Amino acid sequence: METMQAAVLVTPGHFEVREVPIPATGPDDVLVRVDRCGICGTDVHIFEGHYVADRLPFIPGHEFTGTLARVGERVSGLQVGQRVVADINIGCGHCYYCRRNEILNCPQMRQIGIHRDGGFAQYVSVPARQIIPAPDTAAPGVLALTEPVACVVRAARKARAGFGQSVVVLGAGPVGNLHIQMMRLVGAAPIIAVELSPRRAELAARAGADVVITDPNTMLDIVKSHTGGRGADIVIESIGSPALYARAFDLIRPGGHVAAFGITGPDDTVAVRILDMILKENSMKGSVAGMGEDMHDALTLLTHGRFQVEPFTQSVVPLEHIQSAFDTLRDRSEILKVQIAPPA
Q1: What b/e string do you get for 43-77 counting C-beta neighbours within 10 Å, with b at 16 or more?
Q2: SS3 305
Q3: Which of 111, 125, 244, 255 has its CA at a distance of 20 to 30 angstroms from the CA of residue 74?
Q4: Which domain holds residue 18?
Q5: Which 3 state secondary structure label does DSSP give 40?
Q6: Is the same domain home to 104 and 186?
Q7: Same-domain check for residues 242 and 318
Q8: Which positions, given as ranges, span the membrane (predicted)?
Q9: Is 249 strand, coil or helix?
């Protein structure tokens, strides 16, 4: 039996790097040798016992890139040795939502690294239809950002962000920073970030924020001062705080839009003034992950240098030190991204 090294989450807060069987692949699957896998905020939630507590032990990791090591007998157009990324969102393929390309709403949707074993390992099994070929010239650290960049690509589409629109990004952590960069790419102006961490606030300015607010008590006045007294066209909540969601509605102009991105607790709610929604024609829409065309567009943007990637690719940790990497991320808020490198 062939084995590999994998970081297995055995109990909440505790990884063990183990020798486990290399995942089986069917005739329509491929086996990816993982070159790099980023740690996402969702992974930190998983590490703390959310989402998968009833399915442990489990191998997380969904921001991965690698090289094809095995190709199923019914797979065409892909070759061993090819560099790839993967769309982690697997739908049933035949339900109402899949037929409408709303795979994220498929009742049977499963995500690699969240619902099934993922990329914190030397190898991961992926249905071939989820594979996207990647250029040989791109660095693994850059390719491993395809999934998180796809998330902000989709959020921008959902919000219909575009030229000259004023945007507030609440939270300039890893995803907030990418939202800022995405808004700059679509021509939004001004871009206003709200971030308490001095280091992340500095990175937000470098990423393209025109204004960075570090005192939340001043954000309403500052936002209005930079938007002609109206409020922002779009506010993106990227943290997952019910209190910030409530504040977001105060920051938009009449006719403005709240982009719901930050994941809250399952029972969290926010009060909305319905009459304001009606009379001012305000709106709110959620966006949870990138899929399909979002992945292709994210890969294109990254491989053509449209994103500042240095703050996301500088911290690379060997697989055997994954426990300390997660502990560090929980304790040091100024770090935007840690990527895991399995043994070759």
Answers
A1: bebbbeeebbeeeebbbbbbbbbbbbbbbbeebee
A2: coil
A3: 111
A4: 3-139+313-341
A5: coil
A6: no
A7: no
A8: none
A9: helix
CA-to-CA distance for 313 and 292, rounded, in angstroms? 24
Write the CATH number for 54.
3.90.180.10
Give the number of residues written for the chain: 344
* 148: pLDDT strictly greater than 80: yes
Q: CB count, 10 Å around CB of 223? A: 25
Is the whole-model pTM more than 0.90? yes
Count Cα neighbours of 244 within 13 Å in the Cβ-side half-sphere.
21
Q: Please check whether residue 205 lies inside any domain of the structure.
A: yes
Same domain, 275 and 195: yes
CA neighbours closer than 13 Å in the CB half-sphere of residue 20? 19
Query: Residues 187, 328: contact at Cβ < 8 Å?
Result: no
**What span, in angstroms and rounded, lies between the C-alpha atoms of 85 and 324?**
26
Residue 154 contacts residue 178 (beta carbons within 8 Å): no
The dihedrals phi and psi of 341, each to the nearest 5 degrees, come to -115, 105
Whether residue 98 is found in the same domain as residue 218? no
Model pLDDT for residues 12-66, shown as the tens digit of each residue: 999 999 999 999 999 999 999 999 999 998 999 899 888 877 889 999 999 999 9
Going by their DSSP bridges, the two strands 316-318 and 29-38 should be labelled as: unpaired
